[in-house]
Amino acid sequence: MSELTQAEVSALREALDDEYSAWATYEQVIADFGEVRPFSNIREAEARHIEALLTLFRRYELAIPDNPWPGKVNRYDSVREACEAGVAAEIANVELYDRLLAATEREAIRTVLRNLQEASQQRHLAAFRRCAEGGPGKGHGSVRKQGGRE
């Protein structure tokens, strides 16, 4: 197995950090509003995304960082507001993966990154858009906001 370039290591770390942040955000929404959709479904998908990336970390013998995001993510006044933020986050996620894919030619890494990008673009974004438009998962509630993921 050949050694990863610094750009590849950075790309994997950035992807994992983004997935950690998304998981923690959706976990916080569920803590605040209950097992609401689409957050309950997408949180489970984020856990699978994290595991896919951790498989690459183990394969390339990289140190696995802890998730620094629990308790440090944005909180929302309603599920709908959280869904609107989810739309923006998934759009940014697609752009992130475009950039990260350019960092490597290794097919194992590219496959995982493409799969994660496709999930954001094809499934998560659509679910958050439906929710933001008042579909499944709409909710009302009040919580204080705190800093975190932009």
Secondary structure layout:
Elements (H helix, E strand, L loop, with lengths): L5 H28 L5 H21 L19 H23 L5 H26 L18
The count of DSSP E runs of length 2 or more, i.e. the number of strands, is: 0
What's the helical proportion of residues? 55-70%
Indicate the overall shape. globular
Query: What is the CATH T-level topology?
Result: Ferritin
Multimeric state of these chains? single chain
What is the number of helices? Answer: 4
Number of domains: 1
Mean pLDDT across all amino acids: 88
- What string gives the helices and strands in order? HHHH
Query: Which structural class should the secondary elements be placed in?
Result: mainly alpha
Q: What Rg do the Cα atoms give? A: 16 Å
* Beta fraction: under 5%
What are the segments in which pLDDT stays under 50 over at least 5 consecutive residues? 136-150
What are the salient characteristics of this protein?
single chain; 150 residues; mainly alpha; Ferritin; disordered C terminus
Written account of the structure:
By secondary structure, the protein is an all-alpha fold. It has one domain (6-132): Ferritin (Up-down Bundle). Helix content is 65%, strand content 0%. It has four helices and no strands. The protein has helices at 6-33, 39-59, 79-101, 107-132. The longest helix has 28 residues, at 6-33. The termini are far apart. The relative contact order is 0.20. Mean pLDDT is 88; it is low at 136-150.
